[in-house]
Amino acid sequence: MPTTNRHPLRIGALLWPQTDSWSEICNAARTLDAAGLDSIWTWDHLMAIVGRWEQPILEGWTLLAGLAAVTQRPTLGLMVGANTFRNPGLTTKLATTLDHISNGRAYLGIGGAWFQREHEGYGIDFGSGFGERLDRLDEAVMLMRRLLDGERIDRHEGKHYTMVDALCEPRPIQQRLPILIGGSGPQKTLRTTARYADAWNTAGSVEDLRRKDGTLRERCAEVGRDPDEIERTVTFDIVIRDDPKEARRVMAAGLEANGTRLDNDDPLVGPPEKIADRLRPTVELGFRHILIDSRRPYDLETLERLAEVKSLLAS
Fold first, then answer.
1. DSSP secondary-structure letter at 202?
2. Average of pLDDT values for 273-295?
3. Does pLDDT of 119 surpass 90?
4. Which residues 6+ apart lie within 8 Å of 182 measured at CB?
C-alpha cells in the first residue's frame, strides 16, 4: 500500500563533499537554490568513500553551515550523520545551530555508521559490531528527539550514554526539527525509524522499495505509529541531457573523476521526460522526496533541469 500524499513532492541533491574546492560546491548549491529545488545534502565522512580514500573530502556539519549562509530556500542535512562520531547531545546542538544559521531549514540526518577505515584512521570507537552500533543509534536518537523537543533530561544512565541535567537551548527555529534516519535493516534500523524518525532514506528498485516500505509499515504497527507520518526519501544517480548518449558520457566521466566507473547497463540518464517516466512509479509508491547524487565536477545542467523533472512529475 503506497503512502498518502500528505508529504509534498520534493527534489534535491546530495552534493558529494569529495572535493578541496569550496567555490565549486558553493556554486553547485547556489545553482540548486536558484533552480527552485527543495533540499541540499552531503555526507558525514572523514575519508573519501568512493575511489581512493586519500582523496580530499570536506567535513559535513561545517560544510552545511557554510551552504546555509549562501542559500535561501533548500533544507539542509547530512545523508547521513555517523552516530559514532559524536555524543548525541553534541549532535543535537549542531543540528540546532544549523537550524538557526539557516532560519529553520535543518534536518538531523543520522545513521549507525559503516566505514571502518575512517574510524581506525582517526582512532574513533567503531564498536563491537553492526548490531551494537545500531543499538547505540536507537538510544542516541531517543535522546536527540527529547532534547530537540525541549525536554530537560535530568538523569539518563543508559547502556551507551549518560546525561545529567542536559538541555538544548536555544531551541531550534522549527517547532519540530525533523530527524531523518538512513538505512533499511529490518530488525533494528527500521524499528528505530518507526519509533522516532520524521523521514527515512533508502535506495533500490521499485520492487526493493516496496519490500522495504512494507517492512517499515510492520515496524510502525508494532510500535503503534502511523507509517504515513514518515517522509520517504530515495536517492538516485541521474544525469539530464537531451541526448542520452551525452548524458551517459557525463555520468561516466563524473564517476571516473572520483575514482570509480559506471557499471549500470541502464543508467538513469536522458531528457527530463525520460527521467520523469522512470521516477514516476517510485513517486506513486510514496517516495515523494527524490535526491540525486551530485559529484565533482558538479553537473550544473542537471541541477538546473531537475525543476523540469519535478514539474513533469507534479502534473
1. E
2. 97
3. yes
4. 79, 80, 109, 110, 111, 200, 201, 202
